[in-house]
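Students often ask why inverse folding is considered easier than folding. One informal answer: many sequences map to the same fold, so there is more than one right answer. In these notes we will look at a single instance of the problem. The structure comes first.
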């Protein structure tokens, strides 16, 4: 293993000391810090107009702590006061054909599973509204979406869909809905137990189905995926820790699975007592989590050593490198690896990001067509799910390059 002194200055491997707070999921004390990274951007998906603003963007420290009791991982240094999810937040993946296909398939599945025709659907953390609009269209249903990042001048929903640019809260308890969806929002909430209990209280005695989707932290631990650990994700779930959280809050777990290249955990549940449904196979993961946590330091060392060596070798050969994907993975990769001088540009298909700059590293975000003239020797694909789509885009543009998709070691 390489020593700390040869790792990037932002990164350190802590000695496993106790976290300064109890577990936000189960309340147990004694969580141990297993990973730390300093001075990283407090948000990843912000639109910054200049390189200077990107380099000066607010930073915070992260200490990833593991609760052995329930398997939950969390940033014990997270400061909720630093979270600013306003209209300058640009998280949508909806400009990717691969992602749109996934949203369509998921919407069709939910519409069929819960017979939602004519019903009313609630999405907590609806982003720019793409999924809620898709689901309402497929189910021929009405929709209500909450998200503080909503830009109503940009998203113009049909009359049957109402979008509210604010957070969902305890005051929203009297909503008559037939399904609650929450996709890629729970990992941004620090006090997860309070949030899920609040949702359960709002649903009352109605056995309303809920669907939650979060990143799978087990994959991140086992791959040494340091690019998937970043400040605004303060809560990290495995299938088991997610199910345990919901059972404790009196939800019945109907189904639990991995999807989207085994990157996402999908949870299908209903308001209930938390005791009626039998435990599912994916819930039994405490031993696997503990093993992945124990190996995570070496996994991260290996990942850092591989990518640092790759970028150094490319520079020695005068070969240009770009990243494809300017979201949180790209920010995590550049800021943790401290390899900003070795990567020229970051490519993204989202036109709202073009000409903007990456928080922390200051890289300019360019459209795919930019590679017609700037022809890199290497393209690092930040998410392997998009590798085929990106390869097709490069072929369409006549750009010949070497593709490398994370983790790719």
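Output (designed amino acids):
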């Amino acid at each position: 293993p390489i020593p700390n002194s040869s790792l990037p200055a932002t990164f350190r491997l802590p000695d496993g000391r106790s976290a300064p707070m109890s577990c936000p999921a189960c309340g147990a004390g004694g969580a141990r810090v297993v990973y730390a990274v300093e001075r990283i951007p407090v948000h990843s998906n912000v639109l910054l107009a200049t390189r200077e603003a990107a380099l000066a963007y607010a930073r915070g420290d992260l200490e990833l702590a593991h609760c052995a009791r329930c398997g939950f991982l969390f940033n014990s240094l997270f400061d909720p006061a630093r979270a600013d999810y306003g209209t300058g937040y640009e998280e949508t993946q909806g400009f990717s054909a691969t992602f749109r296909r996934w949203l369509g398939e998921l919407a069709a599945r939910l519409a069929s599973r819960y017979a939602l025709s004519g019903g009313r659907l609630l999405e907590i953390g609806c982003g720019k509204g793409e999924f809620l609009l898709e689901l309402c269209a497929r189910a021929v249903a009405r929709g209500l979406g909450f998200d503080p990042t909503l830009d109503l001048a940009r998203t113009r929903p049909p009359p049957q869909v109402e979008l509210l640019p604010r957070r969902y809260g305890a005051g929203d308890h009297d909503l008559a809905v037939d399904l609650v969806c929450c996709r890629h929002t729970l990992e941004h909430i620090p006090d997860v137990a309070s949030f899920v209990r609040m949702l359960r209280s709002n649903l009352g005695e109605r056995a309303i189905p809920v669907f939650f989707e979060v990143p799978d932290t087990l994959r991140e631990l086992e791959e040494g995926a340091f690019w998937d650990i970043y400040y605004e994700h303060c809560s990290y779930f495995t299938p088991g820790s997610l199910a345990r959280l919901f059972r404790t809050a009196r939800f019945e777990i109907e189904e639990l699975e991995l999807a989207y290249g085994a990157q996402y955990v999908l949870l299908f549940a209903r308001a209930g007592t938390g005791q009626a449904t039998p435990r599912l196979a994916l819930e039994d993961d405490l031993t696997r989590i503990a093993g992945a946590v124990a190996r995570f330091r070496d996994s991260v060392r290996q990942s850092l050593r591989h990518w640092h060596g790759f970028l150094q070798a490319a520079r020695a050969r005068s070969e240009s490198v770009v990243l494809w994907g300017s979201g949180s993975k790209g920010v995590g990769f550049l800021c943790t690896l401290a390899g900003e001088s070795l990567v020229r540009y970051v490519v993204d298909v989202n036109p709202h990001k073009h000409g903007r700059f990456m928080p922390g590293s200051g890289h300019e975000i360019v459209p795919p067509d930019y590679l017609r003239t700037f022809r890199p020797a290497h393209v690092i694909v930040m998410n392997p799910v998009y590798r085929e789509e990106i390869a097709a885009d490069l072929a369409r543009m006549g750009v010949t390059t070497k593709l490398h998709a994370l983790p790719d070691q």
